[in-house]
Amino acid sequence: MILNYIWIGLILIAVIIGGIECFCMGNSDVFNAILDSTFSSAKTGFEISIGLTGVLSLWMGIMKIGEKGGVVNQMSRFVSPFFTRIFPELPKGHPAFGSMLMNISATMLGIDNAATPLGLQAMREMQETNTDKTRASNSMIMFLVLVTSGLTLVPISIMTYRAQMGAANPADVFLPILLATYFAAIAGLISVAIAQKINLLQPVVLLTLLGLTAFVGLIIWGAMSLPQEVVTRWSAILAAVILLGVIVWFIIAGMIRRINVYDAFIEGAKGGFQTAIGIVPYLVAMLVAVGMFRASGGMDYLVHGMGWLFGLIGLNTDFVPALPTALMRPLSGAGARGLMVDAMVQYGADSFVGRLVSIVQGSTDTTFYILAVYFGSVNIKDTRYAVVCGLIADFFGILAAILLGYLFFG
Q1: Could you tell me which residues are beta bridge partners of residue 382?
Q2: Model's pTM, two decimal places?
Q3: Which end of the chain is less packed: N or C, by CB atoms within 10 Å?
């Protein structure tokens, strides 16, 4: 329901702004830009979905091998003590636990092309136990809010962009990105726990969160003690090794179980193809609304208005040029990435704004894209409070990014 209001709101605001620009200011080009954006955004949505087809087929095929080989079941039992407490409606050892663990692990390592298929597999597995097939379950909401927080240990892509833009030390944003995205994940977890009345003070939950915090701290210590080029090189190597290791592990497990590995892969790959086709209308709908809003100039008006308001109340407005990236991040990953690069071109990769947009880009994930794709893959119409909790995680992630930007580089 909330996605419905947001979708309608973005389109109506775009048309209203276009009307004001055209009839009151004589700028007739705005309507043409809005119209052009509908076609280009629809094309982009379709191309993204088709582009996902191969990746989805590959990883859902691999997951099917892991499922029949017993690996997913083993992983589910491993994370069951913690997951059964934050996903209380799912039974112990549920196969979705293994898929969720692999999705979160892939996201943390920056392997986005593997994370999405694994997440969609988790949604399909949770949908099997969902009593209302058109309404998001509590477990789906908790999972998606954690996904939208985008907890990333190794922001390889952002460091790569910074290197291409001439940054003296592309990895100097590593620590603030890690902290910002961690705060986003914790904020998302707490917001959903409050909504679902989940007790986060249980010993297992507390110990797990403390352990994760210690692990994040260890990663930070290791990264800060090594040269930037070493961190970047070994991060990429580690991600590749883990990815290939998972594939080999699943295949060997299937061979030990004496299953027909090839047939299992084909069975899973067919499901991946069907999933990719199924998300096309959901993705096109959201991208068209966002594209119209951007083309109308609505984003620019919003940023300028916020800058004026912050200046009026006496706040330091050095962060305002980074707001377009911050506001676009929940709406469009590609749009936010383009705005990040544009800011680095305009202000310099090593400027305060150049570093801040990098931190903002890595602080959270593309909430509306994720909700559209993941819920669309299982035909969920009523998303309940998923958008609200996802935006809460985004807000705290972006707020943390701005504060950390001042702390480290201000």
Answers
A1: 135
A2: 0.80
A3: N
Distances (CA, A) of 371 to 125, 260, 314: 17, 35, 36
- Which residue is associated with the tokens 């594209």? 291
Alpha-carbon distances, residue 287 vs 35, 38, 122, 188 (angstroms): 13, 8, 24, 24
User: How many angstroms separate the CA atoms of 367 and 320, rounded?
Assistant: 22
- What is the torsional sign of CA 351, 344, 109, 243? negative
DSSP state of 111: -
In tens, the pLDDT along 240-267 reads: 777 688 889 889 999 999 999 999 999 8
By the 8 A CB rule, do 190 and 406 touch?
no
The closest of 257, 208, 251, 245 to 80, measured between CA atoms, is: 208
Written as six digits, the tokens of 145 are: 């809010």
- Give the type of residue at 170: P
Say what angle helices 95-108 and 228-256 make with each other, to 10 degrees.
160
Q: Which two tokens stand for residue 338?
A: 């383009």
| Cα–Cα dist 238/243, whole Å | 8
Q: Give the whole-angstrom CA distance, residue 174 versus residue 187.
A: 20
Q: What angle in degrees, to the nearest 10, is found between the helix axes of 280-295 and 367-377?
A: 160
d(CA 391, CA 364): 10
Judge residue 288's burial from the number of C-beta atoms within 10 Å of its C-beta, 0-12 exposed, 13-18 middle, 19 or more buried.
Answer: buried
With cut-offs at 50, 70 and 90, classify the pLDDT of residue 76: confident
